[in-house]
Every structure is written in structure tokens, then in C-alpha cells.
Amino acid sequence: MAMFNSFYSLAFNPFDKQQVKESDAFISHDYKEMLSRLDYLKEARGIGLFTSPPGRGKSFCLRCFSKRLNPSLYHMEYMPLSTITVAEFYKELCTILGVSDKGGKPGRFRAIQEQIYYLYHEKRQPLLLAIDEAQFLSTSILNDIKMLMNQKYDSVNCFTLILCGESSLNHTLSKQIHEALRQRITVHYDFHGLSDEEAVQYVVHKLASAGSSKAIIEEAALLAVAAHSHGNARIIDSIMTDALNIGVQEDKKRIDTDVVMAAVSNQNLG
Question: What's the pTM?
């Protein structure tokens, strides 16, 4: 347990993403917009594209969306990416769908398409496949994804594909070679980031979720956190975790601007 938890009457560190429950999500503008588009996508089926710089909360929003799904109506799978080859992509997709990866690329492709159609037509649990860090997808994989979407002479969308990635993914998909795939994108949302007002509300909400109150941080300190976060929730989490640690070390019952600026300096954000 972090030293500052008892000092500030926190049940846990609310700025540690590993300890945050989906039920405690902060409902930002971006969060609402992404969820509403995902809710539409699960019915319409097709491709959803969600982009932003790192740390804006796309993956957490996906996690919350997945938790809300009825598993008897939808089959949700999540694939986080780093750099990956075409062969690795197909093997991973076979693994998460529970089908054989034998027969090389043609065999894997056929097995994947058959399983996607089975989930949609026979089991009545259409697949929702979320690919995170999709900026790492190669041109070859993106071309194959377009072919995976073709079912029954391209007459029906059998599954939902959710592509989440950094803003560079928009540039990749704008290239002429990806025109056919881009035309299949049903919804596209680019995160705006937290406004200054939302950033303040985010900190207060997080503290409350861990059983503490706004009283442990001064208003000016909240504004300083917002100013240095640039709308990035991950940066806020880092600043506040540092600020809580510094506050304990300096025996400050209330976190003030000096503490926040020291945390900002630690994060090299000044």
C-alpha cells in the first residue's frame, strides 16, 4: 500500500490504472462519444476507427464497453498489438477465435472467416474484434482485414472491427492504397482530450472514488494540474501520484501549487 493512502484517507491510489474499476469511470466528453459510437457499431457492424495521442483513455473506454456487453448476444475479443508480421497476426487471430492455425495463410484465413460467419449466423453472437495500437498494422495486414470483411459476396457485415490507435493511423489510412478499407469505416472518432474543466473534475472524481475528498487539494493546485496535463489523463495520473507522495514527505495535509509544481518537475513537464 502506498504511504499516502492512509495519510490522505484513500482506500487505494485512484490514479493507478490497475486499481480503477470500470464502474468508477470518469464520464468525459470523449468517453461518452466513443461509447455512443461503439453502441451503434455493435448493431450496425462494420469498422470503427478511434484515434488519439497516447494516454487519452481509448483502451480504458474499450474495457468499459466490453464490460457492458451481454456475452450471450456478442462475442468480444481484444487484440493489443506491438509490431507484428502477417503470419503472427493470423496465428494470434486463430488463437483468440479458438480455431486451427494449420494450413498456412490460406488455411488460417479460411478458418477465421468460417468462425466469424458461424458466430454471426449459427450462434447468433456476432464477433466484435478490437485491435489496439493499430498504428502498428502493416499495409499487408490492413489489406487482408479488408478481405476478412467480405462475406457472402460482400452482401453482409458479419462482425464489428474496432481499430484503436495513435493519430498517425489517420495518416496511414488516408493513403490511396487503403481507399477500399477507408470506405468501410462506419464511424470515426478522434479524441479531443480533457478540457481544463474536465481535468479538474477528473481529479476530484478520482479522489472521491477512493473515499477521499476535494479538501485534500487546493483549488489553485487543481488548476495547475489541469494546465500541465494538456488534456491527457495519463499525465494527470502521474502528476497526482507524485504529488501525493511529495505531500506525505512534506507533511502537507492539503496539496498546494508548490507540491504540484514539484511533481510536474519530476515528470519533466515544466
Answer: 0.89
